[in-house]
Every structure is written in C-alpha cells, then in structure tokens.
Write a structure and sequence with these properties.
single chain, 167 residues, alpha/beta, Collagenase (Catalytic Domain), 6 helices, 4 strands, 46% helix
Length: 167
C-alpha cells in the first residue's frame, strides 16, 4: 500500500513517539470520512520543535512565535461563502498521487497543550493532524459557520478513530 503521508522528522522525540504511523492513520481517517481516495493523494508532514515552527510561522504568517500545527495547501479549495463546502481536490493515481500540501507540527507546544488540557498526547496530536488535513482540503475556522463545519468533521473523524470530542 502506498503511504499517504511522507513524514520528515527534525526532532527525534517525534521518532520515538511514532508520528509517522499516527499521522498515516489520522490522515487516512480524514480523507475517508470526506470521501476522498487516500491512495490517490499525498501529504508531507514535518515533525519539528518550537524553534523551527516559530521560524515557519514568522516566515509564512508574520507571527514569529511557536504554534502547534501549520499547514500549506497545494491548492486553494476554500468555499466561496462562509460555512460552504470546499471544492474537491484533484486526485492522482496510486502510482502518481496528487500532493495535497504540507503540515508542520511542533513537539513542545503539542506536549504543553495536551498536559494543560489533561488529555493524552497521542489523542491531541491525532486531532491536530486531522485539523491540518482539513485545512489542506479547504476547511477553515475564520468565521463561526466555517468553524462549526470544520469542528463537526473533526469530531466525527476522531470518533471513527475511537477518540473523544476534543471540544
């Protein structure tokens, strides 16, 4: 089976955590839930630390501080109106999958948030990978209607993985 997520580890804590396996499962669940063929798409994931994600956040969002997860969609699939459904992504084939985009996730921020929210780190990271995948697919949380749609999908995808509602 072709891997959906190509994981690059810059912080060794992610290697020991099993980020690649967790990300593969979370991303497949997100695509399956939305009816997209995982075998015809690919995602790049960077497992990094707070210092690296702060640089990325500064370079791409003008906010030079750590964050939990960032995403860079390959295509703008966002809907025309708030609360609308994004466009479906173009798909490739199993032999030549279409890139959806890139995600970066930071160890320290994720670990701190999981502790503050009194939830297992694996559950929190799974949620953030699903969240990043939805961003790649054109979902956002800039308006109340957009947030309701995105969060509804997150809750359903996490439930399909046996995880509780993160909200």
């Amino acid at each position: 089976m072709q891997m959906l997520v190509e994981t690059v580890i810059e912080d060794d804590r992610w290697e020991g955590f099993g980020l690649a396996t967790l990300a593969e499962s979370a991303a497949r669940a997100a695509l399956t839930h939305l009816g997209h063929p995982a075998e015809a798409l690919e995602i790049s994931l960077l497992g990094c630390d707070d210092a690296r994600i702060a640089v990325l956040n500064g370079d791409f969002r003008g906010k030079a501080k750590p964050t939990n997860v960032l995403s860079w969609p390959a295509w703008d699939l966002s809907p025309e109106a708030p609360g609308g459904l994004p466009e479906d992504p173009e798909t490739g084939t199993a032999e030549d999958p279409e890139p959806l985009g890139d995600i970066a996730i930071a160890w320290e921020t994720c670990a701190r948030e999981a502790e503050e929210q009194d939830k297992p780190l694996r559950d929190h990271v799974t949620h953030l990978i699903v969240h990043g995948c939805l961003h790649l697919l054109g979902y956002d949380h800039e308006t109340e209607a957009d947030a309701a749609l995105m969060e509804g999908h997150e809750v359903a995808i996490l439930a399909s993985l046996g995880l509780s509602d993160p909200y």
